[in-house]
Amino acid sequence: MYAIKTLNNISDKGMKLFTSEYDLSGEGKADGILLRSYSMHGMELDDSVKVIARAGAGVNNIPTEEYAEKGIVVCNTPGANANAVKELVLLGLLMSSRNVVDAVDWVRSIKDNPDAEKVVEKEKGRFTGQELTGKKIGIIGLGAIGALVANMCTSLKMDVYGYDPFISVSAAWGLSYKVKRVENVDMILNNCDYVSLHVPLIEQTKNIITADRLKNAKKGLILLNFARGGLVPEAAIKEALELGSVSTYVTDFPNNNLLNMKNVICIPHLGASTEESEENCAIMAVNATMEFLENGNIVNSVNYPECCMGPADKRDRISICNRNIPNMVGQISGILAEKGMNIAEMKNQSKGNYAYTLIDTDNDVDEDTLDRLKSIEGVIRVRLIKARNKVS
Ligand SMILES: NC(=O)C1=CN([C@@H]2O[C@H](COP(=O)(O)OP(=O)(O)OC[C@H]3O[C@@H](n4cnc5c(N)ncnc54)[C@H](O)[C@@H]3O)[C@@H](O)[C@H]2O)C=CC1
Ligand SMILES: O=C(O)C(=O)COP(=O)(O)O
């Protein structure tokens, strides 16, 4: 039996995939944790936790490096909510271009005016906007979401520019040939009428949109931030709105300061909040959790490498989280050889500072073997997964 804890509401479509082998009561020590935006920084975790699945894309709410050091695999759900965000970006583009927020607020204010129909026709000129067709848009970050946004904007007949020095091969394949490659953030800000941010919040992207950069931005820029608040310092936005270099800031990450600024359109972090996206994310997160707990297979991890060997069905499987340093595989297989054990299949993958090893063995695995594997310097965690239908 595996115990699962959830830190946010996770769609039933995903949760119901957990079989009767899973205790979902949230009681006791968890083997796996599922969450959305709940902040895990500073949270005490039981030693029992082996896998954490973020039903969503951004993992800045999870101390992924600290957890890697503890042998906890953190997964996310790449692309599962990208369409939902793309559609909200479209709304952001339209709302900011057609003054929809102010116009709707104003028209509500005349609801008791008996001449509302006439007043609308007389006053509507105050809300004249601009069209998207033919305007320049820059997309910063061309991953799952940025690529969809870029392609959507080409369909809207916008002139689309993209910046992503780390673009993946699969994202590049999916990108319209009409998207023009730009070499730096400033070129995007200085030339575009609209800029949409789609990078993760990491050390290198924190405060990426500085006050200096915005000073030189094309006058009247509409900046859309459906990625993370921490990419754009509030002071920079305040100054740019006052100077007029930015005309509107659309953000999915409001706070008290932003809510009190004029020409800031605040959305309450709704990017991924559609039924479809919540279901997609939950299904992917639950599948990754079960794969890891039952088979030791790692999929969609952000702190450990992808490593899969199919179901742990016929043979006992040893799962080892270790540091990415020389001679790990040699020492591991040496111990198994000393114990007279035969390795039926083995896989070792690495990512950054960490590596992961899966071993299927024809023999029974005793406690002493596990203890000796644990004692190798650089081994972080060892787990035995008993075969479901063992061959004798
Ligand atoms: N508003 C919302 O509800 C949602 C917000 N998000 C945010 O959007 C972010 C992106 O999501 P996805 O597109 O799914 O992730 P992704 O991982 O598919 O794409 C991120 C892209 O950013 C690029 N990148 C990384 N560092 C960069 C840098 N310094 N400069 C330029 N590009 C850089 C990467 O190469 C990658 O192509 C998430 O990390 C999250 O913070 C994601 C989903 C929902
Ligand atoms: O997936 C992401 O990065 C998001 O920001 C979505 O957050 P949420 O799951 O809606 O709390």
Automatic annotation (TrEMBL):
Boundaries of every ACT domain copy: 317-387
A UniProt-annotated Pfam family: 2-Hacid_dh
Pathway listed: Amino-acid biosynthesis; L-serine biosynthesis; L-serine from 3-phospho-D-glycerate: step 1/3
Gene3D superfamilies, per database record: 3.30.70.260, NAD(P)-binding Rossmann-like Domain
MF-aspect GO terms: NAD binding; phosphoglycerate dehydrogenase activity
Entry annotated with the keyword NAD: yes
Keywords assigned: NAD, Oxidoreductase
Catalytic activity entry: (R)-2-hydroxyglutarate + NAD(+) = 2-oxoglutarate + NADH + H(+); (2R)-3-phosphoglycerate + NAD(+) = 3-phosphooxypyruvate + NADH + H(+)
CDD domains named among the record's database cross-references: ACT_3PGDH (cd04901), PGDH_like_3 (cd12174)
Source taxon at top rank: Bacteria
Keyword Transit peptide attached: no
EC number from the UniProt entry: 1.1.1.399, 1.1.1.95
Entry function: Catalyzes the reversible oxidation of 3-phospho-D-glycerate to 3-phosphonooxypyruvate, the first step of the phosphorylated L-serine biosynthesis pathway. Also catalyzes the reversible oxidation of 2-hydroxyglutarate to 2-oxoglutarate.
Stated family: Belongs to the D-isomer specific 2-hydroxyacid dehydrogenase family.
Name of this protein: D-3-phosphoglycerate dehydrogenase
Species this chain originates from: Youngiibacter fragilis 232.1
